[in-house]
């Protein structure tokens, strides 16, 4: 890298994001002339922001709520898997050309490698937004027999079922707590892909886990701040193996950096330094 470059995270409200800490820590340790900033943008300013990005020194952006789906029509290129998923969490600005990718699903899958006891029978996903799309696709790559997702939005349910028509065993259902609890009791993995449990909803859980869960069921919350959400506390009290979104954050960030700076990336050290700062 022969000139200063900028990276950042694009979203609506970014108060809870730990991405700047993780990236800046890595860049500082390697004395790289790269900055990573927060870019909170109003929905009606998204197009304007991206037009300015094309001619700026910003070469890469992570994308979070609420833009993972909305941003797609504004990009010049969509990676084939991001196109299938229908959500983008990484943008690479290549000489004014904006390219969209999805590293959420790869980060998610990587975190599950350590669970050699995980059965690929029944999966349950709470939510139907951009993050949920990546999770559903990742679960399909793992060959889960049944994948059920819940949403309050019929349009989102129908859109996901249409986009993922090739996934056999995929079901979309209206958000009804008793139905969710019924499905959770027999699930091998449950993933919270909603923002419930994150600031300012730290004291809430998408579901009150007041029932027994399947033996060795994994309950996974994509939220990483706070590290232990109310949802995870409740699930752990019922015997579940719990996982927060920290390692998914690290692995998807690693894939992001690979797209942005390629051979300049020290993968092993990035994981080590990210773990240090996020656990501090």
TrEMBL record:
Q: What is its EC number?
A: 1.1.1.25
Q: Where is the Shikimate dehydrogenase substrate binding N-terminal domain?
A: 9-91
Q: Which InterPro entries match?
A: Aminoacid_DH-like_N_sf (IPR046346), NAD(P)-bd_dom_sf (IPR036291), Shikimate_DH (IPR011342), Shikimate_DH-bd_N (IPR013708), Shikimate_DH_fam (IPR022893), Shikm_DH/Glu-tRNA_Rdtase (IPR006151)
Can you supply one Gene Ontology CC term for this chain's record? Answer: cytosol
| Record-annotated Quinate/shikimate 5-dehydrogenase/glutamyl-tRNA reductase domain positions | 116-222
> What are the alphabetically sorted keywords of the record?
Amino-acid biosynthesis, Aromatic amino acid biosynthesis, NADP, Oxidoreductase
The record's listing under SUPFAM superfamilies reads: Aminoacid dehydrogenase-like, N-terminal domain (SSF53223), NAD(P)-binding Rossmann-fold domains (SSF51735)
- GO BP term (any one): amino acid biosynthetic process
What Gene Ontology molecular function terms does this protein carry?
NADP binding; shikimate 3-dehydrogenase (NADP+) activity
**Matching HAMAP family:** Shikimate_DH_AroE
Q: What is this protein called?
A: shikimate dehydrogenase (NADP(+))
What's the source species for this entry? Answer: marine sediment metagenome
């Amino acid at each position: 890298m022969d000139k200063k470059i900028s990276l950042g995270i694009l979203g609506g409200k970014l108060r809870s994001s730990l991405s700047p800490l993780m990236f800046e820590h890595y860049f500082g340790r390697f004395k790289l002339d790269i900055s990573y900033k927060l870019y909170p943008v109003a929905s009606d300013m998204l197009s304007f922001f991206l037009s300015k990005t094309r001619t700026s020194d910003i070469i890469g952006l992570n994308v979070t709520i609420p833009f993972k789906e909305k941003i797609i029509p504004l990009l010049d290129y969509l990676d084939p898997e991001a196109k299938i998923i229908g959500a983008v969490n990484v943008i690479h600005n290549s000489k004014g050309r904006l390219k969209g990718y999805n590293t959420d699903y790869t980060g998610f899958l990587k975190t599950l490698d350590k669970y050699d006891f995980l059965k690929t029978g029944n999966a349950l996903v709470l939510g139907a937004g951009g993050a949920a799309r990546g999770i559903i696709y990742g679960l399909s790559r793992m060959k889960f027999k049944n994948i059920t997702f819940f949403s309050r939005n019929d349009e989102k349910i129908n859109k996901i079922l249409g986009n993922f028509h090739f996934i056999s065993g995929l079901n979309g259902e209206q958000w009804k707590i008793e139905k969710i609890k019924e499905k959770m009791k027999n699930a091998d993995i449950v993933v919270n892909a909603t923002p419930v449990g994150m600031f300012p909803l730290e004291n809430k859980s998408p579901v009150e886990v007041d029932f027994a869960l399947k033996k060795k069921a994994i309950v996974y919350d994509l939220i990483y701040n706070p590290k232990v959400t109310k949802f995870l506390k409740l699930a752990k009290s019922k015997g579940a193996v719990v996982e927060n979104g920290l390692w998914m954050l690290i692995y998807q960030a690693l894939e992001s950096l690979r797209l942005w700076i390629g051979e300049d990336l020290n993968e092993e050290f990035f994981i080590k330094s990210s773990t240090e700062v996020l656990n501090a």
